[in-house]
Design a protein that fits this description.
The chain has one domain. The relative contact order is 0.22. The chain is mainly alpha-helical. The two termini are 29 Å apart. The chain is built from 10 helices and no strands. The protein is globular and about 60 Å long.
């Protein structure tokens, strides 16, 4: 592992994408615990892409326009679905102001993690990213090239999780300041809905 890999990975992870938006939305709408769960889901959603890259399926996805389009439009549909749920205040990111005996907001862990997994799973660009990015830092001629690839992927996932958790916790800190202001919260909710919708459009027009 080189400093170049760490720096490049950090830049890529820090850039706002669907996972970042989802984690921020989870923190703002449902609090710190939800943001951590969202980060877990987004990180787990990377695993299938790593497996595909190691197994050589990423090359097949790159070569097959049909496979790419199928996964792409499934991702587009899911992002639009998330935008619709966010707009209507339903689903995994429904705003929760109720608190139980512990003082924590009521959340559905499996739903939040599952949505995070799907957001990254249905992103064909992530598989192609591993196809194009990871091999640059792996000695292809080495006997342990696969092990190197898995090690780099593990570091990438760890950095993703840490950065997403930090994003989410920062958002959760602002939650208590806005949850008591329905008008502000409504604007924030609609902003996130618009963000999911725009990302869906961007993915829809992405070239293979």
């Amino acid at each position: 592992m080189t400093p170049e890999f760490l720096i490049t990975t950090l830049i890529i992870v820090l850039l706002p994408g669907t996972g970042v938006i989802y984690t921020l939305a989870a923190g703002l709408t449902q609090g710190a615990r939800a943001s951590v769960l969202a980060a877990v889901g987004c990180t787990l959603g990377i695993v299938p892409h790593v497996a595909a890259s190691v197994a050589g399926l990423a090359a097949l996805l790159h070569a097959s326009a049909l496979a790419f389009q199928v996964i792409k439009y499934l991702g587009v549909a899911y992002l639009f679905y998330m935008a619709w749920q966010m707009w209507r205040d339903t689903g995994a990111l429904a705003i929760s102001a109720e608190r139980g005996k512990s003082g924590k907001a009521h959340i559905d862990p499996l739903r939040i993690v599952g949505a995070g997994v799907l957001i990254n799973l249905l992103n064909p660009k992530l598989t192609l990213f591993f196809l194009a990015f990871m091999p640059q830092f792996v000695d292809a001629g080495a006997a342990n090239a696969t092990t190197q690839m898995l090690g780099l992927a593990a570091v990438f996932m760890a950095i993703t999780f840490i950065v997403f958790v930090l994003y989410g916790l920062l958002a959760a800190q602002a939650r208590d300041h806005v949850i008591s202001r329905p008008r502000v919260m409504r604007r924030i909710k609609r902003s996130f809905a618009a963000a999911f919708g725009l990302m869906g459009l961007r993915l829809a027009f992405a070239e293979h």
